[in-house]
Design brief:
The chain is mainly α. The chain has helices spanning 3-13, 15-23, 26-47, 53-74, 79-100, 110-136, 141-166, 181-198, 209-237, 252-273; strands at 170-172, 176-180. The protein has one domain (3-145, 219-273). The longest helix has 29 residues, at 209-237.
Length: 275
């Protein structure tokens, strides 16, 4: 993909989630994001080696029903959304172990397909719950939600440009040969800079800068794990991109991968730090 094509697509797409987060009430935003998540899970079924359309539709239906159950069971306290977000944090810790053994579930077997389908649900559902929890917080929920998205975009852009110019030391050559440690550090720096710039807009005082920086670093770091995990799934299935819907960016999962990991960690970390 060309750098120009990548930048053009990003600039054209950016206003859509920004306007949705700022203008839509939480139930409508959750419904819209649920549709996007389910479309992304459709792509995920290809990673898992699920080829029959009825089976793929059953998997999507099961996830849609789980989303409905999580909302219905949460009540005003959003208890189920909070528990699901915490499950997401634990899940991404387990993903680190999976990345350390990249050949796990690589075989084309029924067991491997089952693991990968479960992984898809554990990636998507907690992130969706975390988004709903964060956005519903009054009065600054939409601002915090936009910040969570923006810091992942900043980390991704910082990593891309820093890695392209200075990248030498490979991060995970067996999984994603193009990623470098220099790119990771560039992405972390970009996300912290963004946090410092928007801190007053989040209703925080400068005394909260350290806590916000820690939250930002943790979120940006785990977003890299999300990116690597999707790269591993694509490597297992022998594809370069999850789809071709976005010129220069691939499919939906290629755009969601970092956010799926980042959102649960961001929301749970925010609550834990009292921000």
């Amino acid at each position: 993909m060309s750098r120009k094509q990548r930048i053009t697509t990003a600039l054209l797409l950016a206003p859509v989630p920004v306007l949705a987060v700022l203008l839509l009430p939480t139930p409508w935003l959750a419904a819209a994001v649920a549709a996007v998540m389910l479309a992304g899970l459709w792509e995920w079924t290809a990673f898992a080696g699920l080829e029959e359309k009825p089976a793929r539709l059953m998997f999507l239906t099961a996830n849609a029903l789980l989303m409905a159950a999580l909302v219905w069971g949460g009540g005003p306290s959003l208890f189920t959304l909070k528990v699901a977000s915490l499950v997401g944090v634990v899940w991404w810790g387990l993903v680190l172990l999976w990345l350390a053994r990249p050949r796990f579930a690589a075989a084309d077997s029924q067991g491997a397909r089952g693991f990968k389908l479960l992984a898809g649900s554990l990636c998507a559902l907690p992130a969706w719950c975390a988004l709903g929890w964060l956005h519903s917080e009054d009065p600054l929920g939409p601002r915090w939600t936009l910040f969570a998205l923006a810091l992942v975009w900043a980390a991704d852009s910082g990593a891309y440009f820093t890695g392209s110019k200075f990248g030498k030391r490979k991060l995970a050559p067996a999984i994603s040969p193009g990623k470098t440690w220099e790119g990771v550090f560039g992405g972390l720096a970009a996300s912290v800079l963004l946090a410092a710039l928007v801190l007053p807009l989040l209703g925080l005082s400068w005394s909260s800068l350290l806590a916000l920086a820690l939250l930002t670093l943790a979120t940006a770091a785990i977003s890299v794990v999300g990116d690597l995990f999707e790269s591993l799934m694509k490597r297992h299935s022998g594809v370069k991109d999850s789809g071709a819907i976005f010129p220069g960016h691939g499919g939906l999962m290629d755009r969601l991968d970092s956010l799926l990991a980042a959102l649960p960690v961001f929301v749970v970390g925010k609550a834990w730090l009292g921000l």
